Amino acid sequence: MSKLIINIKKLLQIRDKKTSFISACEMNNLPHINNAFLLIENGKISDFGKMSETPKINNIETIDAKNKIVLPAWCDSHTHSVFAGNRSDEYMQRLDGVSYQEIAANGGGILKSSMQINSVSEDDLFLDSKRRIKTLIGYGTGSLEIKTGYGLNYEAELKMLKVIKRLKESLPIQIKSTFLGAHAIPKNYEKEDYFKLVINEMLEDFAKMKLIDFVDIFCEKNYFSTEDTRLICDKASQFNIPSKIHVNQFNSIGGIKVGVECGSLSVDHLEVMNQSDIDILKDSNTMPVLLPGCSFFLGINYAPAKKLLTNGIPFAIASDFNPGSSPTGNMNFIVSLACNKLGISAEQAINAATLNGAYAMGVDKKSGSICKGKFANLIITEDINSIDDIPYYYADNLINKVLINGKEVN
Ligand code: NIG
Ligand code: FE
Q1: In the chain, how many domains are there?
Q2: Mean pLDDT taken over the chain
Q3: What's the CA angle centered on 408, arms 402 and 410, to 5 degrees?
C-alpha cells in the first residue's frame, strides 16, 4: 500500500533518526520543509522532500495537501483512558466548594472509579474504552499510554490489563500499558498490606504474564511514600520494566529525586516544584511530563514550564485523560492549554506533544517525528495560515485527516 501526499504547505517536525527527544534549547524550533511531498509505503514514511523533487510514481493514491500543514500524530504519554462511568457529580460538588481531596477522603474520587471498574464486565470495559479511544484517534492521537489503577485489587487490575492488551490488538495505534496498582489505598486495607499485595503479587504476576510495559505509583502525601516509590521502581527494574511516576501533584515530597535516581523514564505532573526538584532534573534522562488539563480542571497550579526551560530541562505534555482530574483526551486542546497557561510557544507545545511525548512512553524510535522508516502516523490540518493557528483556535480541532500507518481514519 503506497500513498503520496503532495503540495504540503509545511511538513513539520523533521528530525534525524538518532534524535530521541528535543532538548530545552531546541524546543522552540520545528524543522520543516515548505511546499513538500511525503511518500508512504507499507504504512511507514518512506520518503519526503521538496515538491520539486517528488518521485514519479504511476497509479499511486494521492492526497493533495494544498494550504495544509502535515505533522506527526500526537503522542499522549500519560492517560487513564480505560475507566467505567464518570464522575460528573463530583465535578458539580467541586464547583460548589468541596475540594478534590475532600471528595477523595469521603470515599469518592479514585475509590469511586474503582467501584465502577469493579462492577463492569471485561467485555463492557473493553468496548467502552475502545469507543473512547477511537474518538481520540480521530483527534489525531497516534500513540497512547494507558494506566491501570482503578481496579485496586488483583482481579480488577488484571481485568484492566487484559482490556489494554485487547485494545493493543484491536486498534491501529501504538498503545503502551502501565501498571498503577499503587494509585490509592482501597477501603478496608492498611496501606502496608495493600502495597505488599501490589508489589509481591500483582506486579510480579502481571510482569510474568507480559502484560506490563511500565510501572507507576502515586507518590503523594496520604497515598504512597518516596520509600514505596523506590521499592516499586527497583522491583520493576528486576523485570526490566521502566517506571513512569506520578509526583509533585499537590506536594513536593521527594518523588522527583527518587524517580531520577531509579532511572524513571518520566516524572509526571510537577504542579508543585521547588528549586531542588529542578536541580535534580538537570542533566537527567528522565522526561518531565506536564499535564495542563489536570491543572485546568482541578483549578490547581500549572507546572512551571518556563522555569524548566530556562534551567535547560525539556518536557513532554500529555492529556492525563481520566474521569476525575482531566476528562478529556483531546490533545489539540492540551496543546492550546499548554500555550495559554504554561506560556509556551506553538513550537514548544508541538515538540512536547510529539517527539518528547514519544520518548516519555518509549516509542521515539517509531513515532513522534517525520523520519524515514517511522510509522506514517500523521495529522493533515485544515487549510491554515501558520502553526500558531493550532493553539489559537483552542476549541477546534483543525484536522482535515488523520493517517495511522498510512491509512485514513474516519
Ligand atoms: O493523574 N493523581 C493521580 N491520578 C490521576 C487522577 C485520578 C482520578 O482522580 O481519578 C491524575 O490526576
Ligand atoms: Fe495521571
Answers
A1: 2
A2: 98
A3: 80
